[in-house]
Amino acid sequence: MAEDSVRGIVLMSIHPQFSQLILEGHKKVEFRKTRFNTEVSHVVIYATSPVKKIVGYFEIQSINVASPKELWRSYEKVSGVRQKFFNDYYGDASQGVAIEVGKVYPLKNLLSLSSISSSLVPPQSYLYITKETFKQISENVRDTQFSPSRPLSFWNPNNSVYIVSWEYWVHGANNFWFARRLN
Fold first, then answer.
1. Rounded distance, CA 115 to CA 17, Å?
2. What is the pTM of this model?
């Protein structure tokens, strides 16, 4: 990655199941309610509880601001979410933000925020980070492409089918679980 291609960088809190879908290449857009205040070229993915680690980052392909109805129409097939979840998220909002995911960089080892800086805290939505902080994170990028998860079991609470699996990041270390709803 060329150093001059890095402009603004944000650390963004994303639920583990959506982080997983981004890393696997199935979720090509991240929806937000507000746009960034400055130009941003990269998003560092902080997977929220129970993972609570930085799992990778992605280049921003583009940012689209439009009504939620227009965003859904444009991104439904690559959203990684169901329409009900999308509608509940935006509620009565008149506009939303779609951050298109470009090239994705999974990390070799998951990183705690404290391993990067004692002053980093999990952001409510996102926070701007320095190029120096980003350099520490980007030095930990995996050399190989992300491999799909291996299912371990199926789980059926409330008549919904979930597939539960582990992700093995480095020889079985730093694993985390996620459940993906199938119906």
1. 23
2. 0.78
Query: Using CA atoms, how far apart are residues 183 and 168, in angstroms rounded to an integer?
Result: 25
Q: Which two tokens stand for residue 176?
A: 């985390």
Residues comprising the chain, all counted: 183
- Strands 29-32 and 40-47 come out as unpaired
- Alpha carbon distance 55, 62 (integer Å): 21
Asked whether residue 95 is assigned to any structural domain, the reply reads yes
How many domains would you assign to the chain? 1
Question: What CATH number is given to the structural domain containing 77?
Answer: 2.30.130.30
- Each residue's pLDDT, cut to its tens digit, for the chain (183 residues) gives 545 577 899 999 999 999 999 999 999 999 999 999 999 999 999 999 999 999 999 999 999 999 999 999 999 999 999 999 999 999 999 999 999 999 999 998 999 999 999 999 999 999 999 999 999 999 988 764 444 443 333 334 444 444 444 443 333 334 444 444 443
Q: Which of 133, 102, 131, 126 is nearest to 36 (CA)?
A: 126
In a domain, residue 183? The reply is: no
154 is a domain residue:
no
In a domain, 177, yes or no: no
